[in-house]
Design brief:
Helix content is 36%, strand content 14%. By secondary structure, it is α/β, with parallel strands linked by helices. Strands 3-2-1-4-5-7-6 form a 7-stranded mixed β-sheet, sandwiched between helices. α2 (32-44) runs parallel beside α3 and α2 packs parallel to α6 (212-228). The protein is globular, with a radius of gyration of 17 Å.
């Protein structure tokens, strides 16, 4: 009998679909990367998802963010993302946190409830704190490194933070995690040298549609495979 996840079941089996339907994940950051992570997780059958972001959709988001359309400009990303999720799968249980994750807001979240955490936020301080919390509660986490100022989505790789190279953000993360003696952190990073933005002096990362989207899909794929115990 056909259902929403019939094709998925053909690939990962009934047990895999059941595991995903029972999984609770948290996506921190709903921008170019995080929005595509959410989309892929929901379409794969994740049963419960927490959405964390304090931004509103803006005009400059239209070039790369899945939830950004002219009709959603000015609305909070968590609200737009939740509506889209419910339209894809009304059975998904969602919880919204209209806040930015920082060390100061960390206690707002119960990490013991999560089966997986996705870091798609921008600040190093927030990323480090998020990893620390996940390690404290023994929750799997995957972090997005720099997706801005890139043009080649084929240069992205999945690896442990200790094995990264080229990416400036990964370098800072690697150093900070080493200071804290934190090991075994999965990340998605690029070996493409950053492109210098063609700006008039503003320090704004350059971006394009097909780079953060690929990063988000790679991250979602890693989360799904880990949750179902997929082995090649």
């Amino acid at each position: 009998m056909e259902n929403q996840f019939s094709r998925t079941e053909l690939l990962i089996g009934k047990d895999g679909v059941k595991k995903l339907s029972e999984a609770h994940v948290a996506v921190f950051g709903l921008g170019g990367v995080g929005g595509h992570v959410v989309e892929a997780l929901v379409r794969s059958g994740i049963g419960k998802i927490d959405l964390i972001d304090n931004d509103k959709v803006s005009l400059s988001n239209l070039n790369r963010q899945l939830i950004a359309t002219h009709s959603t400009i000015g609305r909070y990303k968590v609200d737009v993302a939740e509506e889209r999720i419910k339209d894809i799968n009304p059975n998904v249980i969602t919880k919204k946190y209209q806040t930015f994750y920082t060390p100061e807001t960390a206690d707002e979240f119960d990490f013991s409830q999560y089966d997986y955490v996705i870091d798609a936020i921008d600040t190093v301080v927030g990323k480090i704190s998020l990893v620390e919390k996940c390690k404290e509660y023994n929750v799997p986490v995957i972090c997005s490194m720099g997706a801005g100022n890139k043009m080649d989505p084929t240069k992205f790789e999945v690896d442990d933070i200790s094995k990264t190279s080229v990416c400036p953000l990964a370098k800072v993360m690697r150093q900070e995690l080493r200071k804290r003696k934190i090991k075994d952190v999965k990340v998605v990073y690029s070996k493409e040298l950053p492109i210098r933005p063609k700006t008039n002096g503003e320090r704004v990362p350059a971006s394009i549609s097909f780079v953060p989207s690929v990063v988000g899909l790679i991250i979602a794929g890693e989360v799904i495979k880990d949750l179902i115990g997929y082995n090649k």
